[in-house]
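Appendix C: a fully annotated inverse folding record. The material below is reproduced so that readers can follow the format used throughout the book. The structure is listed first as tokens, followed by the designed sequence.
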């Protein structure tokens, strides 16, 4: 059972969605402040999970989003606008992915 627990813990290290980083560490990694991360949460761009003690915990995926927001803010974009831009970029990427899937299905079915 101990080996199984270790395997599960090791698997989490590769999981982009695992909330592995405390607020302080997350802010340090993206070169911002905890207040910036809180602002992203208030803007609903990212929603950190909470530890049993109630502390915010961030995943690598959330840190990539926060880093993108920081880039935009550093370029002079207001934080609310930066959050909206990131949301729209994400929606566009998803739409393009779905469009490509539909094209693939259409070309597969027309080739038969």
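Designed amino acids, in order:
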């Amino acid at each position: 059972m101990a080996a199984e627990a270790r395997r599960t813990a090791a698997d989490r290290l590769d999981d982009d969605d695992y909330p592995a980083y405390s607020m302080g560490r997350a802010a340090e990694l993206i070169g911002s402040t905890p207040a910036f991360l809180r602002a992203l949460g208030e803007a609903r761009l990212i929603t950190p999970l909470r530890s049993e003690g109630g502390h915010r915990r961030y995943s690598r995926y959330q840190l990539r989003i926060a880093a993108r927001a920081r880039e935009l803010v550093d370029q002079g974009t207001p934080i609310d606008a930066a959050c909206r831009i990131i949301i729209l970029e994400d929606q566009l990427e998803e739409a393009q992915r779905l469009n490509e899937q539909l094209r693939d299905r259409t070309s597969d079915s027309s080739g038969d």
